[in-house]
Predict the 3D structure of the following.
Amino acid sequence: MSTEESGYSIYRKLVSQLMNGEEQLPSLPMITMEIRRALADPNATTGSLARVISKDPALSATLVKHASSARLRGTPPPRSLEEVIRQLGMLEVDRITMVHSIKSLFPLHSPAHKKLFLDTWHRLARRAAISAVLGRLLGHVSGEHVLLATILSEVGAMAILSAFKAADQVPATELYNRLCREYGKSLGVVVLKKWAVDQSYIEVVRGAGLWGESPGPGIGLVDLVNLGLYHAIRENGPTAQLPPIVELAAYRKLLPPQNALDPSGNGLALVASQRVEIQRMESLLH
């Protein structure tokens, strides 16, 4: 067995232990669970919810950032956390809370762990931003819904990092990507079931990257996530082995003028025309 294969088998064993329940899977923070319970309470008010959210200053600041970014031009910025909640709405607050929690969830045991996580997060943020902007423009699914779905689609890849606890247990990028390809989806499904998220997010995990498949007759959550993934891969590696965009099941659901291609013929003109908005959305995730 080569040194590389031997190293991979060691990492593979660690991830297998995580999959088999021999190691603790990541859990949502208690404050996140408390906020989600408050959001699910039909008797909850913006005041009671604001009191719960205020226990997490970092989340409060993130919500203010989103509300300020999303507000209509000419309208005054929100002056309190209650106004932020009213402006965003309960569903958006829930989704932003989840994204915020996920980013801070996974333990990073060394600078090498941190680098691997941040590299993964930055790529994911780009994908999520593209998908979210497409969701808003196509009008089928809210941008925030798509944003969270994209982040959750890679929760398995991020959870893999939690299997490596020692400072010297950090796989090289190539080995980490290989582990993600082998375990990312199945581990992601396990984690999301543990978190009791909506089934639609679990279906996104299963359908991400399956270019020829698309559930339902219209543009759905999986389609938007896959379109974002496709464009992000193209941006990151123009020579990546991808099918022509016109062969994607998600693309075939688009109607003119939404299906117009950019000058290269490799992506949607819609994405090319929204670079500034995509960058703005991406910045909210960093």
